[in-house]
Amino acid sequence: MTHTTDNAWEHPEVQLAGGGYIVAFVVGLALMGLSLWMVRGHVFAPTGLAVAISALAAVAAFVQCVLLLHMTVSRTQVWQTVALVLFIPLFVITIGLTSWMFHGLYRRTMMMPATHVARPATPTRPRGA
Amino acid sequence: MLVHIDGPWSPLLGRLALSEIPYNNPILVGTFVFAALLAVILVGLVTYLGLWRTIWRDWLTSVDHKKIGIMYILIGLVMLFRGFMDAVMMRAQQAMADGPHSAGYMDSPHGYLTPYHFDQIYTAHGTIMILFAATPLLVGIMNILVPLQIGARDMAYPYLNAVSLWLTAAGAALVMASLFIGDFAHAGWFGIVPVMELPYSPGVGVDYWMWAFQLSSIGTTLGGINLLATIVKMRAPGMTWGRLPIFTWASLSANLISLSTFPVLSVALALLALDRYLGTHFYTAGLGGNLMLYNDLFWIWGHPEVYFVILPAFGMISEIIPTFSEKPLFGYLGMVLASLGIAGVSWGVWLHHFFTMAASPAVNAFFSITTMAVGIPTGVKVFNWAFTMFRGRLRFELPMMWASAALFYLLVGGLTGMMNAFTTNDYMVHNSVFVVAHFHMMLLLIVYAIFGGVNYWFPKVFGFRLEQRFGKIFFWLFTAGTAVVFIPMFTLGFMGMTRRLAYVAFPQWRPLLDIEVVGIVIYLLSAVFLVAQLYVSFRDRAQNRAGLDAWETSRSLEWMTHSPVPFYNFAVTPEVHARDERAWRVEHGVDTVRPERYEDIHMPRNTAIPLWLGALSFGLAFGLVWRMWWLTEVCGLAIFALIVIRSFDRDTDYTIPAADIERMERAIRDVPSGRPVVAGVRGAVPAFRQGV
Ligand code: HEM
Ligand SMILES: [Cu+2]
After folding, report:
1. Where are the beta strands (DSSP E) in B620-663?
2. Which one in A14, A88, B12, B156 has a CA-CA gap of 20 to 30 Å to B200?
3. CA-to-CA distance for B646 and B643, rounded, in angstroms?
4. pLDDT tens digits for A39-96?
5. Å from A26 to nearest chain B CA?
6. Do B256 and B308 meet the contact criterion of CB atoms below 8 Å apart?
7. How far apart, in Å, do the first and last CA atoms of chain B sit?
8. Number of domains in chain B
9. Does any domain span residue B11?
10. How buried is B11 (Cβ within 10 angstroms: 0-12 exposed, 13-18 middle, 19+ buried)?
11. Atom 14 (ligand 1): residue with closest C-alpha?
12. Is the peptide bond before B194 cis (omega within 30 degrees of 0)?
């Protein structure tokens, strides 16, 4: 073992933290609460809602990257940043290809009236009515 | 908030009741008696020999990467045996339940297993073989070898390493518990959607499967982090990236895969857990759920996982072939790039597992092409191995036999994989036993590499070589068994036999199914010779003692320390001069030089906390399976408390003084490694010549 310390205060992550962790925690909670409220209350039309919560998610991710992971290019932290950058292609591959697949799939397999897709079918309505 | 489940439930036992114990099923009772007898014998033996203290102190609480590796391998072997018995049962059932006139026994319409029981067996077989046999065996081997190959004292996080081990053990124990308490999933190892949803599988089987899978997934993710950190940060001085042994490169690429994809599995299973426990609708057919989402998420992990298991196997083959060809590995750089290439491509091919799901032709074509692209780096590897052997001084000792036979499986498995990769072909063979035969070729390649690797590195870890005569009989019988089982299986696949049949409708298939049974019997027979090999090796261990370099033509760093490896690995951290350091030192005549000066060694201290964490996670998962909420809560809180308590522990390491190291080193008597000199070159070969 080349380098070791039992004293948590000597770890660069801990020294960098300051009050950041608490702030990140509170901000994260607030953002999640906000998006939950928006979804439960249907405050926008579906498209607007999707855009709004995606934007909030992006803010949350940013807050986490900066305040929790300390992604900077300083000597001690650059490896965290590199890890994120390496992760981006994976993100693009998995999410991108998945959405491509589902995009075509829905048209092929979900041949039903748009009302059924938007909200669950009400069982009482007679078929074909 | 919790989903309501019909049927009895009590606060104390949850859904568990006496009726859940299958005491009226003769097969399970027999299994239980066998397991109980084995346990009694083992406990008795350990007590009689007075080994409890040693087992506790040197094994269960150990954080030594070699011991953890050995324990991983033991778990893998036990589960391999269990999975093999499942296979025997499935083969027997299909041979018996063939045609409308086939007889039925033990409440079963045909054969001796009811479809419900048969479905559990193939689910258990797949889950066990991939997650609890192949993965632990390979993780164990990586655990032992990677720190030795890079000249480290231990893993980067020895404590985390033990936690990973015990999480995997907890998962394996959960699968085993399902044999005797309740039942196992019947929805296939990858979870056939929506069969594994609550309305279609209201029992505890799917819960057992899901939590066992989840535990192993978390354990393997942590293990991946650990191995990556070890390789990146713990290399001995002089061990540049260009000098990293090829097995370590393979482990690096494999663990890049595990780190990036196992979390996807964890999320996929967690969403399923939400569906089954809280009544969400991620994968349900209606109410906004999406069946296909599960397939997609599962195979985003599932395909990379198959490469996670094959890359270390490739790595072992790449170490064994040069040793027994007495030549450096051909095309080191190509090998490294191919490993990383395979890891890279593996993220972009998962959809070939559900070509028939009705994605658009463009999507299928895209994934068809990416799948075929895997063949390129794989081909590079095959040619590199072939050129390594070309004009080499080939010695077919046991490790080399396993490794070179593995190449044949790669050929058959890879070519049939290419056939599946054509979407048009796949529409024909999807869900047939042809696919089953394809991936068994691939998995057998891994098994062969593992047997090769175990034979190859056994002397390094235990200090004596495995006997070769029984070992060779085992090899040939095992190979014969494979041929006799899988050639008919490929044939049946072409004839249209679908997989997972508890009842086979066509009597014409009977002869081929019978031949497969013969193959299974040959496999069983081969196992006898494996036991004989182990027994004889252990009995004659004094004659078979191995020196530093057990094969006399090995090349990498791990062959420079004693066999068996002392707990501190290297008395003095080696300075690395060349890619094949051992070969370099032999050629320069410095392989037997002892260090002049020893230094203090800083080591991690043993701890029982990982063991407790494993036991508590078992309790947590068991409580979740049976919905015994108090057990879940108690175990969950205890896990949290233990982690917090441990973080205040300052006494986690110690130092061995240099004087003690010197004393221990002087006490070790290495058997000299014979090194014939041919054409004036020590080692009888162009011992040191960097990859061409
Ligand atoms: C050249 C390399 C390979 C190609 C082109 C390939 C291709 C395929 C394809 C297209 C399928 C889907 C067939 C279907 O379900 O209809 C498949 C299934 C499978 N392959 Fe491969 N494969 C390759 C290598 C591997 C390797 C290295 C492994 C394991 C170590 C593996 C294990 C599996 C497994 C486990 C399945 C079936 C999973 C299941 O349905 O339960 N394959 N392969
Ligand atoms: Cu695949």
Report:
1. 653-656
2. B12
3. 5
4. 999 888 888 999 999 999 999 999 988 888 878 778 777 887 888 888 888 888 999 9
5. 22
6. no
7. 65
8. 1
9. no
10. exposed
11. B430
12. yes
